[in-house]
């Protein structure tokens, strides 16, 4: 009788046990593709409960990690002093999982109109509204339509950091804004005269085309794997997973997976450079 009672109690205890805690991840739409695929693998192989979102991009991931509402933030930009200052009690830890670059992409008509490269001076002129027609940037007589990445997105911050030295120094502009990479590619690809900032791996040469950058010495550099790996391309950027302190539990499992050989293959599968590809 006692054994039957004990068995029933064990079954009841198992049935009432709390469900596994969900690992919550949020942030960059650039970092998201390999991480989302890794999450699928770990759900199947390790029975982990993982929720991956891209609300607010890199800044959203940093904010939610700082607030403690997620365990991992995805970021396509380095943490700034301002990021750390907003959460002075948080020990942010960065784990780099790969490297990418911000490309300036244009619509088919701009590309076919002869615009293949822009200098920083020209891009500042476009961003500040002083250059408004492609004929003044080597193209056909056509209005420039600039889709600006939402301020706070990693792609936007890398762009204005290069143009102005810091995000704080960037002027206020009133261009139409785009959020994630898919939205930016879709808007540019479907709009005549369009240009925007976009993760280089999303520049497919079918809907949008990546421009080269004219360097100060007059040479042109394109966002190729070689130029990103050596950081010759000026808008190269690291891809990070962020945690509060050293990752533990399910967060550690995912972070360890992403830096493992299998995880690095996912990073490269989605068009980014893995850590062994970098030559710094």
Task: Give a brief description.
The protein has 280 residues and is an alpha/beta fold.
Please provide the count of β strands: 12
What is the CATH class of the largest domain?
Alpha Beta
Number of separate structural domains: 2
| CATH homologous superfamily caption of the largest domain | Periplasmic binding protein-like II
Topology-level CATH name of the largest domain: D-Maltodextrin-Binding Protein, domain 2
**Topology as H/E string?**
HEHEHEHEHEHEHEHEEEEHEHH
Which CATH architecture of the largest domain is right? 3-Layer(aba) Sandwich
Query: What is the number of helical segments per DSSP (H or I, 4+ residues)?
Result: 11
Low-confidence stretches: 1-18
**Biggest sheet, in brief?**
9 strands, mixed
Question: Which band does the percent of strand residues land in?
Answer: 15-25%
Describe the SSE topology:
Blueprint: H1 2-16, E1 23-27, H2 32-46, E2 50-53, H3 57-67, E3 72-75, H4 81-86, E4 92-106, H5 108-112, E5 117-119, H6 120-127, E6 145-149, H7 154-164, E7 177-178, H8 181-189, E8 194-199, E9 209-210, E10 212-214, E11 220-221, H9 225-229, E12 236-244, H10 249-259, H11 261-269
Parallel strand pairs: 1-2, 1-3, 5-10, 6-7, 6-8
Antiparallel strand pairs: 3-12, 4-8, 4-9, 4-12, 10-11
Helix pairs in contact: 2-11, 10-11
